[in-house]
Fold Thioesterase.
Amino acid sequence: MGIEFTELTAERSVATMPVEGNTQPFGIVHGGAYVVLAESLGSFSANLHAGEGRIAMGIEVSASHTGSATSGTVTGVCTAIKLGRTLTVHEIAISDEAGRRLSTVRITNFLRDAS
């Protein structure tokens, strides 16, 4: 996927992904690739919030794709909506190099003990 993290906290994380290699046959980024980028951001942030000895498990993800990219790089910005004791909710906005929003993804993670 070529995902590169540039910022990573429980409250906010940022990563980029190249368009090349992540397209559907029509030459635009595959919607599933947007979801992979978003889920990676949301899951890493949730696991940071969970803390030592606990893990985050994704229980729901939804995505609305509102644009497409054919070249360059896309960027996902993940923002915490809720950081609770047993649940986290993050929203991920994915945009192209011009700042145009391409996809909005929301992920909910359940937090539990690792053992």
